[in-house]
């Protein structure tokens, strides 16, 4: 393969081949693997697409290709099951064979469990050089990791980041760099970038460029990606000072990646390379069948080492899953503790500024009428929509008026809009009930309007026993609102309280486990925004200064 556009030294390091479907990246990757096999390198290909079997035949399909063993899939030399994963990982690590692990026969969950066990055993046993080619690498190292993929990702990530000392050289192939884990992609020392049209996918290459190469050189490369032709790409190897736009040559083996045209049957190779399968099948058979009670009646001896290996990795999988769950709980606890600490510090700061003012005590007697009866009684909030205050019978305020006055008294000396006061009181800011309460407060002089907000008047506060109440701390105000808002607003408020620098719409949705679209989401944002509880700063939502957010 004289004149191959990627130097051997560049392929001797971790490499990433990136390009949209149909750009020719798998074709270019096939050329790289042919180069490795010609140099007698040991190669293992993780194939979730079922197209790598063509390595076993020539380009025209009439003569033998490379003697690689196909494990699994429609063209299997050896059929595999999920139970064989650990034994197969040990076999690949310790033998001198090159192989394709075809995963097309597995469902998503089966594939993740298989890959977790396979990658764990492979890492554990490998001590000699192995080129590990991972096609559709974003399936095994995704940017967002589903719960059932955590163990698989951890083991693949360990191979990429820590496997060099054990002999791993990893080639990652992906059509969606935006969904390929950035920590894994950043480990590639060589980048092959082919046609990419999606802006998010092109932007994702910035992580690799910033860590490995020059941002200035990268601008021209990234800008050219949508215009590249089939089979054309950039080879970027910073360690070798190589940055070159190339056309990849024809492959030497059978093009099993080619999609058949309309009405055309898929071509199949006529001649495949021979591989010795007996020893391989014997080593894997015991794992599939399981140990038999008593002494085996003929056949190969029981491979207790394989059984112990499988049991070891199954045990490690359980331990790793428990550890990951514990770590996630600890991270949540730390974030919540930090959020509470920030709110507490803000409360201390405001308390110090309040001099010697004492908190409002709404249980004092009614000094305005001298009856000794509280104008507004207190009760702790116990449920969503429960009010802080309620008037005793016979005080002459309508039910809505009592709730609105209670809301204004609770935040005094701060003010609220009518809508915010209604929300806090568990009312709707419209209709005859609300209007009667509002008019009653205005008629009795208990509220006044200033700058678009409503405030409890001095007369109302004096009747409550104190004319200059101390402001509530942000933590108190936050809890007061959180107990009275309809879903999903309290959950949003809680998430923002633990992230004082703010969250974008997408980040906020991820924190609360919701989709950032639809009426339910929009109603939560609207009620927080309209009541002055959150503020939009650039692309992020933050708590308003009322709740301790940045001024």
Strand and helix layout:
Elements: H1 8-11, E1 15-18, H2 25-38, E2 43-47, E3 69-71, H3 85-94, E4 99-102, H4 108-125, E5 130-134, H5 150-162, E6 168-174, H6 182-185, E7 190-193, H7 199-212, H8 215-224, E8 232-237, E9 242-247, H9 278-289, H10 304-353, E10 377-378, E11 389-390, H11 399-411, H12 418-425, H13 431-444, E12 447-450, E13 453-456, H14 458-463, H15 474-482, H16 489-497, E14 503-504, H17 505-512, H18 518-530, E15 534-537, E16 540-543
Parallel strand pairs: 1-6, 1-7, 2-4, 2-5, 3-4, 5-6
Antiparallel strand pairs: 7-8, 8-9, 10-11, 12-13, 14-16, 15-16
Model description:
Helices cover 42% and strands 12% of the residues. It has helices at residues 8-11, 25-38, 85-94, 108-125, 150-162, 182-185, 199-212, 215-224, 278-289, 304-353, 399-411, 418-425, 431-444, 458-463, 474-482, 489-497, 505-512, 518-530; strands at residues 15-18, 43-47, 69-71, 99-102, 130-134, 168-174, 190-193, 232-237, 242-247, 377-378, 389-390, 447-450, 453-456, 503-504, 534-537, 540-543. The protein is built from 18 helices and 16 strands. It folds into 3 domains: 12-257 and 269-303, Rossmann fold; 355-472, no CATH class; 474-551, Arc Repressor Mutant, subunit A (Orthogonal Bundle). With 551 residues, it is α/β, with parallel strands linked by helices. Mean pLDDT is 79; it is low at 286-300 and 354-395. The strands form 4 sheets. Strands 3-4-2-5-6-1-7-8-9 form a 9-stranded mixed sheet, covered by helices on one side. It is elongated and about 100 Å long.
């Amino acid at each position: 393969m004289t004149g191959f556009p990627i130097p051997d030294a560049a392929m001797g390091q971790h490499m990433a081949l990136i390009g949209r479907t149909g750009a020719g990246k798998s074709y270019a990757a096939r050329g790289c693997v042919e180069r490795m096999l010609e140099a007698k390198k040991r190669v293992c290909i993780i194939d979730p697409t079922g197209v790598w079997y063509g390595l076993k035949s020539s380009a025209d399909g009439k003569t033998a290709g490379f003697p690689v063993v196909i494990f699994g899939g429609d063209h299997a030399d050896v059929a595999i099951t999920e139970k064989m994963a650990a034994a197969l990982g040990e076999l690949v690590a310790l033998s001198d064979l090159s192989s394709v692990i075809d995963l097309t026969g597995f469902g998503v969950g089966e594939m993740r469990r298989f890959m977790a066990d396979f990658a764990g055993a492979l890492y554990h046993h490998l001590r000699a050089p192995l080129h590990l080619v991972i096609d559709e690498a974003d399936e095994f190292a995704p940017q967002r990791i589903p719960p059932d993929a955590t163990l698989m990702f951890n083991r693949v990530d360990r191979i990429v980041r820590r496997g060099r000392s054990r002999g791993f050289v990893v080639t990652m192939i992906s059509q969606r760099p935006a969904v390929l884990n950035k920590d894994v992609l950043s480990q590639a020392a060589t980048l092959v970038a082919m046609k990419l049209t999606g802006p998010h996918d092109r932007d994702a290459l910035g992580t690799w460029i910033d860590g490995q190469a020059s941002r200035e050189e990268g601008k021209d490369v990234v800008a050219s990606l949508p215009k590249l032709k089939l089979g054309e790409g950039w080879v970027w190897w910073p360690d070798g000072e190589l940055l070159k736009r190339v056309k990849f040559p024809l492959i030497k083996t059978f093009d099993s990646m080619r999609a058949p045209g309309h009405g055309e049957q898929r071509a199949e190779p006529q001649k495949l390379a021979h591989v010795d399968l007996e020893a391989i099948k014997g080593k894997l058979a015991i794992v599939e069948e399981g140990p038999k009670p008593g002494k085996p009646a003929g056949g190969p001896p029981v491979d207790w080492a394989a059984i112990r290996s499988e049991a070891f990795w199954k045990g490690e999988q359980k331990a790793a899953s428990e550890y990951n769950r514990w770590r996630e709980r600890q991270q949540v606890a730390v974030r919540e503790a930090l959020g509470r600490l920030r709110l507490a510090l803000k409360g201390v700061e405001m308390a110090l500024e309040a001099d010697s003012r004492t908190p409002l005590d709404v249980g004092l007697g009614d000094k305005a009428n001298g009856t000794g009866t509280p104008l507004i009684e207190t009760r702790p909030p116990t449920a969503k929509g429960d009010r802080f205050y309620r008037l005793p019978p016979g005080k002459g305020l309508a039910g809505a008026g009592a709730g609105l006055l209670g809301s204004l008294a609770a935040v005094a000396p701060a003010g609220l809009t009518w809508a915010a006061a209604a929300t806090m009181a568990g009312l709707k800011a419209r209709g005859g009930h609300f209007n009667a309460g509002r008019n009653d407060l205005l008629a009795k002089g208990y509220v006044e309007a200033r700058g678009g907000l409503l405030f409890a008047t001095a007369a109302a506060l004096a009747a409550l026993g104190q004319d200059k109440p101390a402001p509530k701390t942000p933590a108190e105000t936050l809890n007061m609102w959180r107990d009275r808002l309809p879903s999903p607003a309290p959950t949003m408020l809680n998430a923002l309280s633990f992230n004082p620098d703010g969250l974008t719409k997408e980040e906020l949705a991820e924190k609360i486990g919701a989709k950032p679209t639809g009426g339910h989401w929009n109603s939560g944002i609207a009620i927080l925004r309209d009541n002055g509880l959150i503020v939009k700063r650039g692309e992020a939502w933050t708590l308003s200064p009322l709740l301790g957010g940045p001024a």
